[in-house]
Design a protein that fits this description.
Distance between the termini: 77 Å
Strand content: 35-45%
Helix content: under 10%
Number of helices: 1
Shape: elongated
Radius of gyration: 30 Å
Length: 503
C-alpha cells in the first residue's frame, strides 16, 4: 500500500507523493499542514517517486470545504506535475490525494478515514483596528490597540507617530497584554497616530487617528484605510524612516525587483524596487517603447513596494512620493504618497497599461523630492493586464492507426502576455463528471495528438485552458460529446437466390 505526502516548501514525510504550495501563496502557518492565504487560486506541484509511477494508473485530488463531504476534484495520470485549484469563496479547505494502481485499487481506500494531507485557510477580508488611550498595570500611560479579524495576528500591530523634531517614532509593545503599547512621550497625545496590522492571511489594514488628551481620552477623526488582495480573473468561452540634515537629499534604496529591476542613479537619489502584487481607475495610453522585458506583469491595479531609506539627517523624512510614467520618462504623473513613510508603499495604478515607477523623497525640512525630471529613467516597470486570453476549442478529429486510433485536438489561444507552455487539455466522459488531465504546460501550437483510453467508453467532452503571465485564466469547453465508434462493420453472405425473368 502506498500513502500520500504533502509539503509547503518544507517536506512533511507521510509517504511517497509530495504536494507543494508555492511560498508566494503562503502568509503564515499555525502548523506544518495548515496554510493561511488571501489567494483564491493556487497551483500545487506534485512529486511522485519514479519507481512507483509504473504501477500507477491515476492520481486523484480530493477536496473538502467546511462540513461538506470529500469530493474528487481532479484525476490525472501518474505523470502529473501539479494540481490547480481555484476556491469559490473564503473558507477552510482540506486536501488529500489518492493513487489508483493498474488493478483499480485506490490507496487510501477511504479518504475520510484519515487526516487531511493539507489544510488551507482562505481569507480575503482585511482586519479592522481601533486605538484608545488607557493605563498600564502600574498606572503608566499606554494605548490599547484592538484588531477585529477572523484570523488576527497581534504581533503585526504597529503604532507610529511623529515626534516634535519631525522624526518618525514607534511605540514599544507592553509585555503585559497583546496590543498594549507604552507611551513614554507626552507629545504623543497631540499627534497624528498611524496604526497598521496584517492578519495571518496577509490582508493589511491601516488607519490614521488624531490623539487628544491622555489616558482615558478617546481618539478623534478616525479614518480607516483597508487593503484587499487581488481578485482572480477567470473567464469561460463557449460555455466552455530616519533624520536628514539640510543640504542633504535622502538616499532611498529598495530591495531587488521581483522579475527584474532597473537600478538607476540620478543626481543623489538611488532607487531600486521590489514590487509584489497587493490585494484592484482612469486609463492611460502607453507608448510602444514602454514595455521592457524585465517588467513585472500583474492582473491587479494594486501593488505593494518595499523600500529602505538611507543617508538620513536630523530633520527626518518629510515625504515619500510615488510617480509613474507611461512614455519612458518623458512625462511623469504623481500616483500618491506613502503617508507613514515606512515600507512597504502601496501603489494604486490607474488602469491597464505599462508604467515606469520612481520614488522621490524629501527630508523633514522639505529638501529633495519634487517631480522627476523629463527624461529621468524609471527604477521599475509594471504592466497591468486584467484581460484574459482568448481561447477557442476547434475540431477534434478521430484518426485511425495501428494502435487503435487517436484524437487530434485543435484549439486557438491568443494574448499579448500568453508566454510559453501555458495550455492545458482535459477530458471527461459525462457532462457532470470530474475533469481528467490529458496534458499540461503545452506549447500554444494549436494541436495535440491524444491516444485516448479505450476502456473509458465512447463519449468524451473536452476543455482547453490557457493562462497568461499576469495570472488571467480562460478556458473553452465542448458542448456536445465527441462520439468514438470503433466498431468495424462486417458483412456475411448467408445465401444466394436466383432472380428469374431477368436477362
Amino acid at each position: 500500500m502506498r500513502s500520500c505526502t504533502w509539503r509547503t516548501w518544507g517536506v512533511w514525510t507521510l509517504g511517497t507523493i509530495l504536494l507543494a504550495l508555492p511560498a508566494a501563496l503562503q502568509a503564515q502557518t499555525s502548523d506544518s499542514k495548515t496554510i493561511f492565504t488571501n489567494k483564491h487560486f493556487f497551483q500545487m506541484p506534485v512529486k511522485i517517486d519514479d519507481h512507483l509511477r509504473a504501477d500507477l494508473k491515476e492520481v486523484c485530488l480530493y477536496v473538502k470545504r467546511g462540513t461538506s463531504d470529500w469530493t474528487r476534484q481532479e484525476t490525472a495520470s501518474p505523470a502529473v506535475k501539479q494540481f490547480t485549484y481555484r476556491v469559490p469563496q473564503d473558507g477552510e479547505y482540506w486536501f488529500s490525494v489518492a493513487t489508483i494502481d493498474k488493478a483499480g485499487r485506490m490507496n487510501p481506500p477511504d479518504i475520510g478515514a484519515q487526516a487531511p494531507g493539507l489544510k488551507v485557510v482562505v481569507d480575503t477580508s482585511p482586519p479592522s483596528v481601533e486605538l484608545k488611550a488607557t493605563s498600564g498595570p502600574d498606572g503608566e500611560p499606554c494605548v490599547q490597540c484592538t484588531m477585529q479579524d477572523a484570523h488576527p495576528d497581534m504581533q503585526s500591530l504597529q503604532v507610529n507617530y511623529r515626534g516634535r523634531d519631525g522624526s518618525e517614532r514607534s511605540l514599544e509593545p507592553h509585555p503585559a497584554k497583546p496590543g498594549l503599547f507604552h507611551v513614554p512621550d507626552p507629545n504623543f497625545w497631540g499627534s497624528m497616530v498611524r496604526v497598521s496590522a496584517i492578519d495571518r492571511c496577509g490582508n493589511r489594514a491601516r488607519c490614521e487617528i488624531q490623539m487628544s488628551g491622555g489616558p482615558g481620552a478617546q481618539p478623534e477623526n478616525i479614518q480607516t484605510v483597508k487593503s484587499a488582495p487581488p481578485p482572480v480573473h477567470q473567464h469561460g468561452v463557449q460555455e466552455s524612516t530616519h533624520p536628514v540634515n539640510i543640504g542633504e537629499e535622502p538616499h532611498l534604496k529598495k530591495a531587488p525587483l521581483a522579475l527584474g529591476s532597473v537600478p538607476t542613479v540620478s543626481g543623489r537619489t538611488h532607487v531600486e524596487t521590489r514590487i509584489e502584487p497587493a490585494p484592484r481607475k482612469l486609463p492611460i495610453q502607453v507608448g510602444s517603447d514602454a514595455a521592457p522585458a524585465n517588467r513585472l506583469i500583474l492582473n491587479t491595479q494594486q501593488a505593494s513596494m518595499e523600500y529602505r531609506i538611507d543617508q538620513v539627517g536630523s530633520s527626518g523624512i518629510g515625504r515619500v512620493d510615488i510617480y509613474a510614467t507611461t512614455d519612458n520618462g518623458n512625462t511623469w504623473r504623481k500616483l500618491g504618497e506613502d503617508r507613514d513613510r515606512r515600507s512597504p508603499a502601496e501603489l494604486d495604478l490607474p488602469g491597464e497599461g505599462t508604467f515606469g515607477i520612481r520614488l522621490v523623497v524629501a527630508n523633514g525640512l522639505g529638501f529633495g523630492g519634487g517631480v522627476p525630471a523629463r527624461g529621468e529613467a524609471p527604477t521599475s516597470w509594471i504592466e497591468v493586464d486584467t484581460t484574459p486570453p482568448t481561447v477557442q476549442l476547434h475540431e477534434i478529429e478521430p484518426v485511425a492507426d495501428e494502435n487503435g486510433g487517436h484524437l487530434d485536438i485543435h484549439w486557438k489561444a491568443s494574448d499579448t502576455n500568453l508566454g510559453n507552455d501555458t495550455v492545458s487539455l482535459s477530458y471527461r466522459t459525462r457532462p457532470d463528471g470530474p475533469w481528467k488531465i490529458i496534458a499540461r504546460n503545452l506549447k500554444n501550437d494549436g494541436s495535440y495528438s491524444w491516444a485516448f483510453p479505450h476502456d473509458m467508453g465512447s463519449k468524451f467532452y473536452f476543455k482547453v485552458e490557457a493562462a497568461d503571465q499576469a495570472g488571467n485564466v480562460a478556458f473553452a469547453e465542448s458542448h456536445n460529446p465527441v462520439l468514438l465508434d470503433r466498431t468495424e462493420p462486417r458483412a456475411t453472405v448467408p445465401s444466394v437466390t436466383a432472380i428469374s425473368g431477368r436477362k
